[in-house]
């Protein structure tokens, strides 16, 4: 006799699946990105530089907030004096300009007051630092696109208040060239935010398109008309490669950058909480042509920590094609605008841990040391010191550095014999530059290893930094998701097939009796318990079919509905494959938006709710059946094996819902109140709380009404648990017994 709740759940899911499947198939779906049909334009600008050494400043993840005005205040109080001392060729702001969250950080939306903060801060920075506004380049981050239905919408405040928009740079690809005496340094900025700004949390990845990747590659190829040794290509964006999805045809930036001889890619997004040393070398294939110089390494990727909490900025320098950087945490204690501490950036030789990318075994060495010194004080002495780690870090040479240009360039230069520092170890020799100002204050750069041969030192990353920065999360998400689905399919189907086969041949009862009656052998007993647990859990046909239908619903049908972009826009549906929203340019439906961004929703739900729920359903039915095995052993002890075997035969030939005949109610109630069932009910309570927390956070993010009315997400798990608890409860057994 089936439980009425179980039957109701089964018919509910059957009807929902059939209705939603027919509704879904009737909708016109387009799996493409919103935009025009032509090629994306490129915003190009060029600036001259004096000589062949250039430097710029990068700032990322400002997260300006109406509830944290200090972040905008510190841009003026700390960044402006730093820029006045550094005098960079460019200022790059690589995304997440505003926070776009409410005070409790439970929902995301664009706030015009935050963009006004940003615009006012930029004007103040230009005023106090003296930087030309045309040399400021900003791009979107995912926070800057939260809740923006499309570019040009009234909520698209970036298109109004950003520097790029005010200067007419409306393209998602920006190309900047710094032209020196003999070299050209190319900086290409990429905006890979979602074309339709899905609200958080399912807006986490960069989403390049085939069209945009073709534009980037074309722009990189444009500079190949010049000799390769005179052009250095650097790209910047918001998203690291680990959080950048593939294009529609599966193309990725890594291979594109390697093909086009990109030197480095700088980005933000991950903040400084994981690590402030998120560096990664993307290797490229060696050329098989003996006439082509063999590149031993690919391009570097350097992530910058956030301004939001850390107040970090990066000074990036390019010296004869060698790219170096130095990160600075601006101190918050100083209130004086011009209080910028003296900073030293060694531009050559490069740090062998995170900057070398070209072997130089057969090339002539550069016999010079270059360093940039930024200070508000007059510098009277600059000295480079070389240390030998094989000789207890003794100083082996001191090289005085002289100022090259006293007006525009704080570049200090010195000569040495680089041939003297050949070494098989890339960390044997270390370099430090000390600076003394006219007040006698000495400032030293960090002690860093170098290799004149361009050898790369091993850098030991933490496991957390490796996980967030070097793992391709799109691929990992697919592995985690489909391995979970595969496990659940096997978990449901395999024991059902075995149980059906054994019951059809009337061998299930004999198999159970043979293991219960025989003396236990540890290995065989463990295998029996596992097999018996799985088969007993699958023998309630109604609940088993309902679980199968539910898994199909999660795979094919909407998980929930909600306001994907703005509460003033249409309600959209989130599927396992992504969001399905109506196109802002026509009646078509756009599919698969925000994939794999929804991993922050799907993985917790599948791993913390669905999977443990299925296991607990099986466990509750197995726990009830275990009572009858316990009853059999007790009967065997009292009445002998013949009577007990006869009783067990009567018990095991029925499905679990009919196993209550001949068992005393008091014994059943006593066992149902035991510690095993209590533990399982506690597990059900924990799953219910986790499920409620997930649903509540999604209600706050995408709307209470539509999310709460979504059966697959909000209703199904508690209904399954209630039906299972009712079907295996003592009260239900008593009812069936009568």
TrEMBL record:
Gene Ontology MF terms: hydrolase activity
Signal peptide per UniProt: 1-20
Keyword field contains Repeat: no
Gene3D superfamilies: 3.60.21.10
Pfam family, one: Metallophos
Domain TMEM62 Ig-like: 339-455
Domain TMEM62 C-terminal stretches: 479-711
SUPFAM superfamilies: Metallo-dependent phosphatases
PANTHER family with a match to the protein in the record: HELICASE RELATED, METALLOPHOSPHOESTERASE-RELATED
Official protein name in the record: Calcineurin-like phosphoesterase domain-containing protein
Organism taxonomic ancestry: Eukaryota, Viridiplantae, Streptophyta, Embryophyta, Tracheophyta
